[in-house]
Amino acid sequence: MSMQQQIQGKISSAIACKHLNVINESHMHSKGTESHFKVIVVSEEFAGKRLLQRHREINEILKDELANHIHALAIHTYTPDEYTEQGGEAPDSPNCMGGSKSS
């Protein structure tokens, strides 16, 4: 199972998602590793929760992957209404500043 599939499976098992997109962005940063990801999670469960609470929830779900496999994770969490207000898109991930990037 790829790291992308593992992330998708863990999040979808833990949160009732209206929309979930796990994007492997490793090709933009690293050669030959699955280490950079962006997750877009849309769920009613985020209603009434602050951004920090939402991110902590995702970090807790993926704590093993973050500790052992993932170099960078861009997290975008929305309620369905917030996602609609965003036009159904999340911002681009920032450029990697090092770590597993090779020339």
TrEMBL record:
InterPro entries: BolA, BolA-like_sf, BolA/IbaG_stress_morph_reg. Belongs to the BolA/IbaG family. Residues 81-103 are annotated as: Disordered. This is Transcriptional regulator.
